[in-house]
């Protein structure tokens, strides 16, 4: 493909991504994969270049742009090489005119920027929310140590804070590596590794991972428990939960049992665990404002209505978790969001609903106290953004 044709492809893809963001359609990655599946003439360099242009345009536009062209023209205003590809050639975009529409910049839609500032984030911390993220992996201590893994990747370095983390150059082919194949590493952001460790699960305990998804944190819990004890991984999403057993097998995890639940009927599915868990991890469904670095189009999709629905689910899963914990046991509540509505406000509301429970300070090597919990943010900590709180049940 010529450079101009690559820009035209990025414009077409952005049009599809913008349409999907407005209608709740497929994610950008899916649309990009479909686009190239139908255009076999595009080589791997073309695909990489187009993808980079698409994501640069998504990162640069805080709100949904009027069109793919408006997004690319805004990008070209600051990039002469890109601007030169608007050359009107056969497969390229028409030349740029001075008065045509440009996508607005910004970090997020105005209502979301306001909500982030109201949640205590400094304005200068906002751009880091949409910068490219590093590629972090967690070393699976059931299979290897960090020193075993580091030599397998030439440009790898230990993560600054997480004990078992390794940071690799973005784009490293982790899943084609021997350590991945052997189950010695899992892709996991350093922040995710840190907040997952707040439960401090130890061998022999009875632990529930209530919102386990495909098991990213379940596998870390099993490693912390050295495969000894009981570990129940639950979710309401069959497709996600179904991926867990295969990942567990690769990681040498033997104690994770999965359980699919019906939404709003979780306590029925968990009747045999009521009041018995030493600890419950609630990695709650959330708006993902802390993970825009990896998924920048998410900020185009979030609405106030969706946020309100997520908040209701978060309160509900916290209440389910409280029913599972034994006297004196604990809950760790995590959201990959920096909005107080999903973080410290949820904890305050939980404590108001549940007599005798208290919040304990998680105290991690990165981040800082925030309300009744702890917060990591991309600008200050170089991790995805997270809120985490530890709650102690009365004895
Ligand atoms: C942030 S994701 C979990 C990610 C996962 N723990 C990991 O580390 O990879 C939140 C999960 O909550 C699940 N969820 C949504 N509603 C739920 C409910 N009522 N009970 C349990 N899980 C729920 C979603 O299906 C989703 O998998």
Automatic annotation (TrEMBL):
Keywords: Methyltransferase, RNA-binding, S-adenosyl-L-methionine, Transferase. One of its GO terms (biological process) is RNA methylation. The keyword RNA-binding applies. GO terms for molecular function: RNA binding; RNA methyltransferase activity. Residues 116-394 form the SAM-dependent MTase RsmB/NOP-type domain. The active site is at residue 336. InterPro entries: MeTrfase_RsmB-F_NOP2_cat, MeTrfase_RsmB-F_NOP2_dom, RCMT, SAM-dependent_MTases_sf. S-adenosyl-L-methionine binds at residues 235, 283. The keyword Transferase applies. It holds the Pfam family Methyltr_RsmB-F. PANTHER family: NOP2 YEAST -RELATED NOL1/NOP2/FMU SUN DOMAIN-CONTAINING (PTHR22807), RIBOSOMAL RNA SMALL SUBUNIT METHYLTRANSFERASE B-RELATED (PTHR22807:SF53). Belongs to the class I-like SAM-binding methyltransferase superfamily. RsmB/NOP family. This is 16S rRNA (Cytosine967-C5)-methyltransferase.
